[in-house]
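User: Good morning. I'm curious how iron/sulfur cluster would be positioned relative to this chain. Could you predict the structure with it bound?
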Amino acid sequence: MEKESRHSNQSGISRRGFLSVGGAAVAGTTLSMRPGSVVEGRERQGGGAKIRKYKTLGRTGFEVSDLAVGGVPLRNTAVVRYAYEKGINYFDVAERYSGGAAEEAVGEAMQFMDRSKIFITTKIGMGNNDTVETVLDRCGQCLARMKTDYIDAFYMHGIGSVEALNNPVFHAATDRLKADGKIKFIGFSCHGPRGNRGDSMEDVLLAAAEDGRFDQVLYVYNFMNREVGDKILAALKAKNIGTTAMKTAPGMLRPTPFDPENPTEQQTQYIDRMVSRGRSREQAITGLRRQIERQHETYQNTRPFIEKYGIETEEQLRLASIHWVAQNPDMHTTCVGMNDLDIIDKIVPLSGTTLSPADEALLSDYETVLNDKYCRHGCNICADACPNGLPVSTIMRYAYYFECQGREKDAMLEYAALDEGDASLCIGCHAPCSGACPYGIDIQSTMLQAHSLLTL
Ligand code: SF4
Ligand code: SF4
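Assistant: Good morning! Here's the predicted structure, ligand included:
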């Protein structure tokens, strides 16, 4: 069920008022900013838009904003507070996001929010050594970081197989946590198999719909996987399971030019990170150059599309992609990864609106452009095509983390930890995988590009 409603702004603080104070008093209380916060000491211009649509999150019965704070990059508590003031009431975090800093950002903002009006989901990754006691303990730490007595939804993080739905430790522990009033609902996030052991996202989600124990889920839904995504959505809707979306904006088109004498802030950070990991500065620059050259090649290939629509920034594509997901009445909320305030001002006006015909046309053409470039998250169709047992879907997902989400370190660590080996095996291979992707992705060359990226 969808509802148009007005989220009350308990303090009535405008963005200008909210932001201009930096670390000073707000509505009679003290705004605690982390040193180096993006808003610290800055006067910012702000839009007046507020969230206009709330949807019932399946069987939880909670009315959630159609756009949500996704916590992968979240570290700044001002983002949580500003999102709340704009009417966003869903926060998706995890124990491992920024080593607990995403949960802490929510916790630092907690005193400024009406707890009964927000919905918090957090997640823990289940390991082979976990016991009921360790899960109870980790949940307690999540509660402490978020300065709250209860978690609305407690998830298994990133499960990659149907079998994992039955994790007896998770179910036993969450039964206890529910009885103790520390969690209300359970769910899981899924973006397909991890390595070569696992099932497609579709198989996992359809099995979960049948399973019946899960109240809500977080999965990959975007205009590029609409066929699979809609099938999953229909199955979840039939069981009144809450639906939340992630990785809503696939692909990227335009590289930022690189001048070693005058690198951008992001490029400087990248080089510094590589140096701190033991690379020489020259190696880091070479790697960055290689990466940008490859992006430039993609850009050249997509130039007709870019010129046809007069696309100036990648953000235009990102916002249209997010909008496409958020407008779907059956997707209850759309999680957008964020750690700055500007993105909030950009997405909130999308709330409760539908894509314009022009944006529909743009996404339709964009889909064609990306078709043989974007490895669908959670897809596992080519799993048996590699005699070397390389986990193609997983490796391409790590490349996406690196390239599209700015999570270079995570991506490289995950890649290095793969049991199945890495894509250096593709060098000189006669590529029996060719033709295995129904979308026409050239698996060998894409894997080699991923390897080059993830081993810079
Ligand atoms: S390469 Fe193609 S078949 Fe293989 S996982 Fe990606 S989208 Fe699926
Ligand atoms: S090219 Fe790579 S992914 Fe394809 S079959 Fe060879 S080793 Fe496997």
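Confidence is low (pLDDT under 50) at residues 1-46. Residues 381-456 form one domain.
Let me know if you'd like a different ligand tried.
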